[in-house]
Amino acid sequence: MASNTSQSSKTSSTGQNGRVADRQVPMKVLALGYGRTGTRSLRDALLTLGYHHTYHTFDAVYVNPRECKIWLKGLHAKCDGVGKKFGREEFDQLLGHCQAVADMPAAYFAPELIQAYPDAKVILTIRDIDEWHESVKNTLQIADSSLISGILGFTAKILFMPNRWNYPMFQKLNKVLYDGDFKKNGRKSFEQHYDHVRSLVPPENLLEYHMKDGWEPLCRFLGKPIPAEPVPYINQREGFNKKFRDWNVASIQAQLKRVLDISAYAALMAWVGAALLTRLS
């Protein structure tokens, strides 16, 4: 296969997400561990080591929510046979500006990403499976199954909000990862994913990494000097849940503003219509 470095063409074509749709920098690191295993901390560590940009779920959710629509399209293609399955072209549209990628939904496409970027090093963030299960149960699963998430997801669609694809993407991801039952299938899904990635990657190109191990094994694997600052260790349970609450508040405010804008526009059109009828009568 050709090196992804040699294919890093620079063009001005633009994809559905508003980004340049071709690879601008070589993809160097695929961090394919499940969420709540230190993926956000690893993302910040990779940025510190100079991997710009390092893509994370938050990029799609908070920075460019149109990308959730593209990821959802990829999930439907892979799981339901609807549309073209994602390969190098589709990933470059989403990740062409990135030298590294971490977390879901990208990790669900581990086989496809490994095939698309054969020169990239692969990292599996690891964690005790029971600790991981408890963490997901008290963070991601609450966010995905809460009533407020469902309501805001519905109203975002009705109001044509920019983030209207967030909720359906996460619902689809929960379905394909855990068959809709995390309590029953979470551990099995975790183990199968990690075993599958191990089977796809040569040992010399794979690092199984716990964030508590610090810089040394990560930098040795990537061939980078060890930074002076401590390795990042963020996005613990309390921080995640606060961010989720803040996100809900921001979503409510944005939707209320959209309702007010629509109401003001409707009132203006009604006034203009009434004025025209009066003039014509």
TrEMBL record:
It comes from the Eukaryota. Residues 1-18 have a biased composition (Low complexity). InterPro entries: P-loop_NTPase, Sulfotransfer_4. Residues 1-20 are annotated as: Disordered. This is NAD dependent epimerase/dehydratase. The lineage of its organism: Eukaryota, Fungi, Dikarya, Ascomycota, Pezizomycotina.
